[in-house]
């Protein structure tokens, strides 16, 4: 059996079991990148409405892209123990896919600093997916948001992490 020292520790919990913000002041600033993905599943008719640009609320994909970027920049306001970061780059790509049918959302976030940007990438994807939902919910109530996950992370002490077993949406 593994000893307590061998078990991974929750970094946001102190010795008393109370929530805390991690002290990253002694960590070196390195370039860090995180990529997150998610999918919004809908009917073919709703997807066609998005692709044609005729959604009642306007440009669904453009609005979702901006919302995701804005969300990445505000992650520390939304997730209580996240550090506020000066992000160097946020990209948010949304592709429509008739096979799903729906939209594939992918965010990439970059920073040079002492802590990673996984939460910023995940927040960007989550809010972009929610924005797509919000803009089409009047047409279709059964829209689903699925598979939001960290796809890749580079930099920092733990190095490169690449997801190879994420659930796929067919």
Q: Would you write up a description of this structure?
A:
This protein is α+β, with helices and mostly antiparallel strands. The protein has 4 helices and 5 strands. The protein starts with 29 loop residues before the first strand and ends in an 8-residue tail after the last strand.
Task: Indicate the topology.
Elements: E1 30-41, H1 44-52, H2 60-73, H3 75-78, E2 89-97, E3 102-113, H4 118-136, E4 144-154, E5 161-162
Antiparallel strand pairs: 1-3, 1-4, 2-3, 4-5
Main β sheet profile = 5 strands, antiparallel
What sequence of helices (H) and strands (E) makes up the elements?
EHHHEEHEE
N-to-C terminal Cα separation, in Å?
40 Å
The gross shape turns out to be elongated
Helix- and strand-based class?
A: alpha+beta
Q: Mean pLDDT score, rounded? A: 89
What is the percent of helical residues? 25-40%
Short account of what is shown:
The protein is α+β, with helices and mostly antiparallel strands.
Which features does this protein show?
alpha+beta; 4 helices; 170 residues; five-stranded antiparallel beta sheet; 27% strand
